[in-house]
Amino acid sequence: MQAFSSRYDAALALAARAHRDQLRKGTDLPYIAHSVHVSIILIRHGFDEALAIAGLLHDVVEDTDTPLALIAAEFGDAVAQLVEAVSETKSADGAELPWEQRKAEKLAHLQAGSPDVAALKAADAIHNLRSIIADLHSDGPAVWQRFKRGPAPTLGYYHAILEAVREKLGAHAIVAELALAVTELEQVAGGSA
What we know:
By secondary structure, this protein is mostly helical. Helix content is about 70%, strand content about 0%.
């Protein structure tokens, strides 16, 4: 990917506007930091601009009122399809869906998706795992209170992501980075898992 792209800047601006009032769970860190990290992980692993843009926008539909049609109109169907593939349906008929159902849906999308979907989900998981690990180091086991489920279900979910990503991407370096992050979370979580 080249060093500058007006398309990438437009995606960054859209993500920043969409997430402007959001913070990372249990922190005072602006949410946009997560989107930027996901994009950087993808760029670092050599993925193309469309995937890097999807990294910036991957939570915009799921966590804001931004319609998928806007992403398709501004960044193309390929980017919109990637965002849709990693977006979670959080509620139905006004009721929040159970955590297990939402995660099973995400895993099904991942398993049915392309290698690019797997790369996007891997980058998202890597940053989330690294954030949990850092928070456990600084705040201890109280970090788990931020999540719908405790350490064991959370680790189980990340193991399932790793296996699905490994099936799609084989020995790609992003898979190795994800495997390392899962292992490190297991070690840091220790007895609380």
